[in-house]
Amino acid sequence: MLPGEDARAGEIPLMRRGWEFEGRKTLRVCRPRPVSKSQGKFAMQLTDKNRQDLWKAATQALSQAYAPYSRLRVGASVLTANGHIYAGANVENASYGLSLCAERAAIAQAVAAEGPSMRLKAVAVASSQPGALTPCGACRQVILEFGSAALVLFPGEEGLLEVPITELLPHAFRLSKEALPGEK
Ligand code: THU
Prior knowledge:
globular, Cytidine Deaminase, domain 2, alpha/beta, 5 helices
């Protein structure tokens, strides 16, 4: 176990109506072990309050979704290294491919508020569909850009999963230093 880590993978109470997990008053958090020692070393630690605040912000945000085409409303929230929470919802378009996912909308809010040095501690995703919903591949790449140690919370089959982004996106695309302008 890591220093300061809460070993319990258990129930956290959800206090207010409107942000339950599928009608349940508690949220079962399934916390998988860190993937490797090196990831564990840098892995973020979340408190139950962090989880509750993230889940509340994500579920509240999904009511703001603009999803007339898929009818799937998605809400996302992010916790930044500065300790602030920002939220976003999916925004669809008649030209379907232009649709924006909730995770990227929330990240854009965080960058707009904190600037280019914004770093992610955690991202939570909630949706109007019952059952599991995992962040899409494009959003995984964007989450990684702002926090390689970020934790991602999303509904699994049996409860809320909390998974490091590097586990959701192994062998991720990264630019080499040499490929960046001005780095040669
Ligand atoms: N969507 C998200 O907002 N996040 C994801 O990670 C997966 C998909 C949205 C995009 C679109 O508006 C709707 O869900 C159906 O794909």
